[in-house]
Description:
By secondary structure, the chain is α+β, with helices and mostly antiparallel strands. It has helices at residues 58-70, 95-110, 117-127, 131-136, 171-197, 201-211, 219-227, 230-233, 242-248, 251-261, 283-295; strands at 2-10, 16-23, 30-35, 40-45, 79-85, 139-143, 148-151, 158-164, 238-239, 266-269, 276-280, 301-307.
Amino acid sequence: xxxxxxxxxxxxxxxHDLVTVFHAVSLFDEVTVxxxxxxxxxxxxxGAASVPAGRANLAARAARALAAVALTRRSKSxxxxxxxxxxxxxxxxxxGSADAAATLVACNELWxxxxxxxxxxxxxxxxxSDVPFxxxxxxxxxxxxxxxxxxxxxxxxxxxxxAFSAGALSTPDVFAACDRLxAARAARAxxxxxxxxxxxxxxxxxxxEAEAPQPALSMELMAALRSGDPAAVGPLLSNDLQPAAVxxxxxxxxxxxxxxxxxxxxxxxxxxxxxxxxLAADADRAKELAVSLTSAGAGRGVVRVRGPAGGAAVMAAxxx
Length: 320
Ligand code: C5P
């Protein structure tokens, strides 16, 4: 998830420049990769039916991207990928990116490519903006389109409650809604200024600022994360995509309000949504909050997770 997600203006290449604080939490999918005669992807578990199978699957794309860079004999590169999902699909939790990162780690091991972590992260960036972070894990600052990473210094463990929402949100749709909301706000600001002072240079500057704010890292958030105090971190959580996600899913407003009323230190839409994340003071409070949110009927399911968690890692290698 993202503790801060500041979105800049749209770039020419279909992406947005951003500054984000990525935070990996303890909700994992399990990915198994085996050599095979033909490439295939099998998905089971949470929301499996809505995960693209075959070549379009992000994990399959990750395997092909690695093979293209690291294998000289492409004939040996076919793998069977099995994904057991626990991370909900298209939920703003970068589950697809996590599966792609796991596949990179597994294939890297299987093919003994000898790539360094940095080289692997470069391959990851070609697969998706969040895939390099899914490899790295922990808490990290992301820049560019999210693929340029700097590890962040964070003290302590944070206890979160995630409220899953029925249905999915498409990341490009949420970014597009963010642009639309900003353009509308900028047009309103321009109208107000024009009425006050007549059109001119000041009006254009106001419009540019409202439509395309330059993202910047929150130093207050970084200091709070170093302090390890969730009460300091909670109010500093921010997500520029939240108004867009809420505009597409108005019920999220109620979910966020319910969490705050039930004592969450911070309440935020995760990534492009629709999952909502609530920060609790400690493990016991997280348990209480999870129970209360469930009783309040917030979302379609509630889980407790901790952060920071590790990135994609090999759990076991079968001999052979
Ligand atoms: O990089 P990835 O394929 O995960 O991005 C999915 C989509 O999310 C992009 O096609 C784009 O619409 C949007 N996006 C963006 N700016 C970013 C990252 C993603 O607009 N920094």
